[in-house]
Amino acid sequence: MRIIAGKYKSRRIRTLRTDAKQDKSGYRPTTDRAKESLFNVLNNLIDFEGTSCLDLYAGSGSLGFEAMSRGAAACDFVDASVKQISLIQDTAIELGVEEQVDFFCEDVFGFLSKNYNAFYDLIFADPPYRYTMHNKLLSMVFDINFSIFVLEHPADSLLLYDTNRFDVMSKTIGVTNFKIFSTKE
């Protein structure tokens, strides 16, 4: 897996080796095609320069590192897997951004409940395959301050949210579905 664009373009992102596109833990990285399409949309919504990011269910950290390659100043990576956090740390060292990132090896809900006063310009959430708690995740993310929140989800997910609070955009790339929430000003 590689970074698509920006100052780290074509640099490698460390990932767990799996024989299938998705392993038993539910880990399945966002494809390069889906990531490229998502960031094409985001380029029209946000200037990455100097932004702060949060990458929930970070996995390989692909989304957070892509944002940093495009100019984000900092990123917090949250994943419950020690192996995944270790790989993200290795990638950060290889890219020379270890001073700009923080790593949280913990449950996403635990992290969000402790950081509800935080502000992030951009939040990514790419939960594991067959995840069933999208609405709880939405509720907790909506309790913190952000400009843009990107949720990767299955096509059959019934997502509940307040359209008066957010502008919402949907983007589907192959079997990958994104909901992009922008805070209304």
Description:
The chain is an alpha/beta fold and 185 residues long. The chain has one domain: Vaccinia Virus protein VP39 (Rossmann fold, 3-Layer(aba) Sandwich), CATH 3.40.50. The chain is built from 5 helices and 7 strands. The chain has helices spanning 32-43, 62-69, 82-95, 108-114, 134-142; strands at residues 52-56, 74-79, 101-105, 119-125, 145-153, 166-173, 176-183. The longest helix is centred in the middle third of the chain and has 14 residues, at 82-95.
N-to-C order of helices and strands = HEHEHEHEHEEE
* Distance linking N and C termini: 36 Å
Task: Write down how many β-strands occur, each being a DSSP E stretch of 2 or more residues.
Answer: 7
Assembly context of the chains: single chain
Structural class: alpha/beta
Name the overall outline: globular
**CATH-defined superfamily:** Vaccinia Virus protein VP39
Gyration radius, in Å:
15 Å
Q: How much of the residues is beta strand, in percent?
A: 25-35%
Q: What is the fold-level CATH name, i.e. the topology?
A: Rossmann fold
Main sheet attributes: strand count, strand direction, barrel closure: 7 strands, mixed
